[in-house]
Design goal:
Aspartate Aminotransferase, domain 2; binds 4'-deoxy-4'-aminopyridoxal-5'-phosphate; three-stranded antiparallel β-sheet
Amino acid sequence: MTGIDDLPVRDELRGKSPYGAPQLDVPVRLNTNENPYPLPEPLVERIAERVREAARDLNRYPDRDAVRLRTELAAYLTKSGGHPLGTENVWAANGSNEVIQQLLQTFGGPGRTAIGFEPSYSMHALIARGTGTGWISGPRREDFTIDLAAAERAIAEHKPDVVFVTTPNNPTGNAVPAETVLALYEAAQAAKPSMVIVDEAYIEFSHGASLLPLLDGRPHLVISRTMSKAFGAAGLRLGYLAAHPAVVDAVQLVRLPYHLSAVTQATALAALEHTDTLLGYVEQLKAERDRLVAELRAIGYEVTESDANFVQFGRFADAHAAWRKILDRGVLVRDNGVPGWLRVSAGTPAENDAFLDAVRELKKEL
Ligand code: PMP
């Protein structure tokens, strides 16, 4: 039988597996940092209305530059980030994964490199591979904070074209202080100068503020965002970035024409009309996240400080065996391959109770 390796695939793809958290049908799924609350009914109605309108024009290509959507996203960022941004500062694509892919197609590529401080969001390295960008695994401390001096040394040594900073970081949950990001930006400018991509997929759940105000006067800084987490719209596939207008112009050199369908644009616009309702759940999820941290500690687990909608907990002699035992109790969490640690997304109070019961039982076996 013909398999992948019998095909003339690129050398760097040989023997590799596609990214993917298991999509298992179990009662409690807390493994992909989704928002557990379905969209409210009035929003579902509004989406149907806007999609119906869009459907009448589906014989035509959509707005290639997604101007209305980018204008509304800029308004949301301006209101929530306390920093004025316009349509020209914002770009949107099918999930922030596509935003990151477009950024690496633009600023990375063959003969170029990107660095991330690991463990971090594993798609950064995978998208680097997919775009032919060399990947450098930068260091983190034992407690998963970024060791600034070591990070600056790595940037000076490797002179990467792209530097990734994820804050709050996935899978560890901790935020990166603004001073650290600023220092990394300075180091990256001194070494190359390179682009610094701050992945703020979880920023709405953070105790701290967004780094959007840092964009002022820093044309090599990009902040990437998503509607998959705080907006509770992972199925919509809508990610976006904020940056200097020149960055927005640059990514258009690689975007496919009409990449964002009219249905996606209409749905995202409807969701943005309901921003306040959607973000209403964020406070609830933050409270549940804090409860998970407190209860996990009370049970006797170690927990990494979390600014996200998930919590990293451990330590386990065999994290994968622990993952399996939690799954046997009907709760799916995530094994990100960080030795000794697992990650759980904050769900509804009932889902979190089921998770806490499972890990309370597990603790007795350890
Ligand atoms: N960045 C980080 C840090 C993430 O954890 C995720 C999703 N797990 C993404 C980006 C991508 O999200 P999406 O493509 O759904 O916007």
